[in-house]
Amino acid sequence: MDWxxxxxxxxxxxxxxxxxxxxxxxxxxxxxxxxxxxEQEVLDIARIDLIDDELLAKDREHxxxxxxxxxxQNPAEAAAFLKERLDAENIGYEIESGNCDVESCLESWxxxxxxxxxxxxLLIRPVWRDDYEPDGRIVLDLEPGLAFGTGTHETTRxxxxxxxxxxxxxxxxxxxxxxxxxxxxxALLLGAxxxxxxxxxxxxxxxxxxxxALNNVSDRYKxxxxxxxxxxxxxxxxxxxxxxxxxxxxxxSDIEKLMNDNTVxxxxxxxxxxxxxxxxxxxxxxxxxxxxxxxxxxALAARKRK
Length: 306
Description:
By secondary structure, this protein is of the alpha/beta class. It is 31% helix and 32% strand. Mean pLDDT is 85; it is low at 42-48.
């Protein structure tokens, strides 16, 4: 199956804004080429100052964002959305597109996904990378496939950091829009007793189950293919929803029935311009008690009012 590769070229100063817009287009299948800080990054990561001539010849003034879109997701609509949002942000850009096969897309992206420390306790390790040092951290082995949730995006990192803070031994956890299962697996590795992941994408549910097995927690994880929380029942101690703002808003009317008196409800995937919309949609009985922000993305921790 041929996918469409859209390449957006912008000035290096606009890379972060353009990346955020790209992540609003598709939640996965994105990688960025940005060589503006090449020398310092090579020194920080590799501890050397000798750089290949091919890398030194790269454009330092511009970056390229590669976005991969499956045929059924309407690549033409995605390109139109990108142009509209980039124009609205007054970002100068060039857009080009072409076809690529899934394997090529995946292999291109994998080269840029490295083992990564998150928060104080976790290290996310792509299963194809062995070049890492745990340094006493809990290692979460991950094969995301085409599912959202690698830990590289601000929204996922904010959720993982919140989970470190709020997960307690014996907790029951629900992850709405589970994607790769990274949040549910992290919660289980941090001590939760059980986790349920729900996603409308069957491929994502399959990936979440496989990642639970990779981390030896599949006996405590249940992946469900369904729409938001429609198939969830009972109550949970931790609920996460790392999804787009509109989906968080839609979930707000039903989330209370899944919460007990001490539940921590973590919402993320909320870009700054939608923060007020999400806050306004929460029922009066639920209050936000902590707020986290990174590069224009927000995560909220909420609970029932006492």
